[in-house]
Each structure stands twice: as structure tokens, then as C-alpha cells.
Design goal:
The structure is a homodimer.
Chain A lengths: L7 H15 L11 H8 L3 H14 L2 E4 L3 E4 L6 E4 L14 H8 L4 E12 L2 H7 L6 E11 L2 E11 H4 L14 H8 L6 E9 L3 H6 L8 E9 L5 E10 L3 E8 L2
Parallel strand pairs in A: 3-10
Antiparallel strand pairs in A: 1-2, 4-5, 5-6, 6-9, 7-8, 8-9
Helix pairs in contact in A: 1-3, 2-3
The first copy, chain A, binds a DNA duplex (19 and 19 nucleotides) through helix 1 and helix 3.
DNA sequence: TAGTGGTCTAGACCACTGG
DNA sequence: CAGTGGTCTAGACCACTAT
């Protein structure tokens, strides 16, 4: 007996989970239909569906309306490394994100959703060390790996820095991108500060990132600092958890 | 109309979500009972329960058998910083984990679950740069913040390093803990490498960490390196997402 | 059109919590 | 004990996918 006295839906979930982990159902494979499972186990269809839902919440199974329930295959993670701002990527013209996508046979690209002047939310003001509610530039982007949206990214820059610069345009008019513009204005990245947490997506995020149930997001808040410890840019990444990860490599100080 | 043509369970979920976010139901507050909701909205109890379940999956609500459904309050995060291995914590005798707990009025402690000699799993061998299946020491711990288990931690050390050392004992016989022992043997931490990802907990992890549904975990794999880039220790953290986060602060190289 | 999941109903009984 | 969630049943109809 796997466990003692599990109710039918959980018992079925336990059996299916074991079969998945044992490889009886391979990644990508379709599970028996809920009606079939119900008949085989002598339970109501609702109860079989409940078992499948439990597995979906664990991230083991994806449910597809009209098609069936499928074993979720492990996705290769697109790892954003702590060296992603390193000058070494400059000349190649390739960003770490694009490199990672390529490594996996995908096509990376990003899309500008909006560029606006807004009043800073409190957490942005805190990170930037400016007054709460002061003007900041907000740029919103989506990063795609082939047809999957993987990151939802929002960048904030103090208005005093952004004003009159190429940052206001949709297409960044600089060979080295957004950070090229900062450097031209004298803001050279010396340190970065990043906070990481995880949570379930809001319904809105789930829609934007096309997330099935059972997939959390990583929320990363990145701050760029000059050698004088001046914060000149904050970026918030919302990353789909099943396709992304982080990699840090740093000295102990 | 919030959306068009939502089915009853989702419609109720949408309404409750709005009330929660608006503060009509405060954090910690009890929602109306499922039977009450069902009566008020003219739907079956199952349907009302389904709405609540949706909110639980999003992490907004915690369901408590026999008591009721409650709005989940934001937990203060225990942030493990990248400086947690910094020598500056040495003399104080306080670890960053304990400091964070204290800051929140909690009592931090940890418990040793097991200390064993095993054959290295593949990922451990890869991180340590040793042969797959070679002997390693495995130490398993749980970290508590007052009565909540927050991290499940497993450390691996090449057997050649661990053999005959204090690492084999349950209680580490060194004033500076496990890393004190490494240093005495000539392994001084010069760099760290950490990979971070998120996922839903396995049922086992959910039980160990006492996780309600709608709470993902952070999985961090930490590797300690000497100045010569020799990896001498790997640790895997499984952290409950609603109570923990990470904080990195590092130079751009 | 047939097959699959999405969802609902109405009623039932069990299991847990708290007085 | 009463109140609450946990779960099940049996049947129904809808919505989506594929042929």
C-alpha cells in the first residue's frame, strides 16, 4: 500500500504519479481519458478529473481542452547568468539571452510593449533612491523564445537621466543597447543588486506568459549601480518558472 | 462586466479576488463559508468550493479544514543574501539566517536530519568535478523560523575531504561551523556559484515544509570554490517560496 | 461527427475544529 | 454538539479538437 487510506482521487493521483516517474508514461505522452480512468478505477468521472487536476497543480501534467491530458516534459531552462551585463558580450552583438535561445534551437527576440513617463511606485523609488512619486521612465518588454513568451520585463529610469535621451524611443538608437546610452551619459555599471523570489502568477500574468496551471514565476528585481553606488536603473523581471532559471557566479568579498 | 461569459466558479473567484485586493477582506480574515457563498450566489456548494480552490492555487487564500478559508497575508521574506558566507559574520557568531529571523521576531534554528556516506548523484558529481558515483558525504538539515520549517538543505562533500573530519559528526565541532572545518583543511572560499530555479513542491516536500497549495519552492544549488576554482562543497536548498527570497550583490566583472 | 476536457447540479457522508 | 471544509456520486450539457 502506497499510503494508508487515501481517498480515491488522491489514490489515483498517486498511482499516475508513480507511473509518470517510473516512465510508464513518457514525457509528452497522453494519459488515458478521464472517462477511461474513471471506468477502470470504478470511480466517477469527476473524481478521475480531480486526480488529474492534482497532478496538473504539481506541474506534472498539462491539461488540454479537447485533446487530452499530457505528461509535462522537462523544459530546457533558459538561464540568465550574472555575467549577462559583462562587457564581453559587447562586440559579438549577442546577448546571453539570445545565446541561450540559440543553444536550444530557438529564436530569441523581444518586443517593446510601452515606453512611458510615470510617477514612480514606492518600491522603484526605494531602489533608485529617489523621492516617492517622482517622475521616472518606464519601459515594458516581452522576451520570446521562438513562440513562447518567457519574460515580462519592466525597466525604470529616473527621469533626470532618461530625459532627452534615446531611452524614450521604442527602438534603442545605440549599438550597445540601453546600457550603451547609460554609459554615454556617464553611468557605468560597477555593481548589480538583485533580489529573487517566487510566487504563483496572477491571472493576468498567466495569460500573458501563456502559463498552464502548476507553473510558478520567478520575480527578479535588478538594480544597476555605478562605482559610486548610485542606482540609475531598476528592472523587474517576471519569468515563467518552467522555462527559466538564474545562474550567479561571484567572488566572496 | 469584469470579463465576458465567465462560468460561475470563475466569476465568483473574480469577485472574491477583487474584494481581497481591494481590502474588503483583509489579510488573515475568514471568507464566508462555502455554503454561505453558494446560497448568496445561487450556485451549488461544489461550485463555490471550486472558486475558493482557484484562489488557493493562486496563493491568495489558505484553506483550513474544519475552520474556514482565510485570506493569505503577505509573509515577511527571510532573505538569504549573497554575503552569507562573508567572514564578517564570523566573530558575531550570528549567521545571516539567524539575523533575519531575529529581525522578524522569530527564533531561527536548524536540525540535522542525517549524515551519511553515499554514492554521488550525477548532478553532484558534475558540480564537484568528481567521478559520477564516487563517494561523498551527505548532510541533510532543516532550518526553522520559530515553528515553520523554511528550508530543506542537503550538503555534499567529496569523501576525500570529509573523511576523518568533524563533518561526519552530527554537531559540527568547530567554532565557525562547517566552513571553519573546510578552512582548516585548506579549502578557503574564494568564489561561489549558484543556480536558482522554481517549481511546485513534490508531495513529499509539501509535507516536510508544511506547504499549503499555491506555494512554490525555490531550488538553489550552491557550490563553493577555492581561489584555484576547485569545488569542494555543494549544497542544495529547497526553500518555501512564501517565506524566503534571495538577495545578490556583486561586482560586474 | 466523435472524443476529450470544462463545468455544473443536488445531495450525501466523512473528518476536522472548537465550544 | 454545530459549523466548516474534503470528497464522492451520477448525470448532464457545453466547448474545443480533430477527422
Amino acid at each position: 500500500m502506497t499510503t494508508k487510506e487515501e481517498p480515491p482521487s488522491r489514490a489515483l493521483a498517486t498511482q499516475l504519479r508513480a507511473k509518470i516517474q517510473r516512465g510508464d508514461y513518457a514525457p509528452g505522452e497522453k494519459l488515458p481519458s478521464e472517462r477511461t480512468l474513471a471506468a477502470e478505477y470504478g470511480i466517477a468521472r469527476n473524481t478521475a478529473a480531480e486526480a488529474v487536476r492534482l497532478l496538473a497543480e504539481e506541474g506534472l501534467v498539462t491539461r488540454q481542452h479537447g485533446k487530452g491530458n499530457f505528461v509535462r516534459g522537462e523544459q530546457a531552462l533558459i538561464r540568465l547568468g550574472s555575467d549577462r551585463y559583462s562587457p564581453k558580450y559587447r562586440e559579438s552583438g549577442l546577448s546571453p539571452f539570445l545565446l541561450e535561445c540559440e543553444k536550444q534551437g530557438k529564436v530569441g527576440r523581444f518586443e517593446v510593449l510601452s515606453v512611458e513617463k510615470i510617477r514612480s511606485p514606492e518600491w522603484v523609488a526605494d531602489e533608485l533612491g529617489v523621492e516617492n512619486g517622482s517622475n521616472v521612465l518606464e519601459r515594458e518588454n516581452v522576451f520570446w523564445a521562438s513562440d513562447d513568451p518567457v519574460y515580462r520585463v519592466t525597466t525604470y529610469v529616473p527621469w533626470g537621466i532618461a530625459k532627452g535621451s534615446g531611452l524614450l524611443r521604442d527602438e534603442i538608437p545605440h549599438k550597445y543597447g540601453i546600457h550603451g546610452i547609460f554609459e554615454d551619459k556617464g553611468y557605468v555599471m560597477a555593481r548589480i543588486r538583485e533580489s529573487v523570489k517566487t510566487r504563483m502568477p496572477t491571472p493576468e500574468e498567466a495569460e500573458h506568459l501563456q502559463l498552464p496551471s502548476g507553473v510558478p514565476v520567478l520575480e527578479v528585481v535588478h538594480t544597476s549601480l555605478t562605482a559610486e553606488q548610485t542606482a540609475y536603473e531598476v528592472t523587474r523581471f517576471v519569468m515563467r518558472g518552467d522555462m527559466s532559471g538564474l545562474l550567479y557566479n561571484m567572488p566572496v568579498e
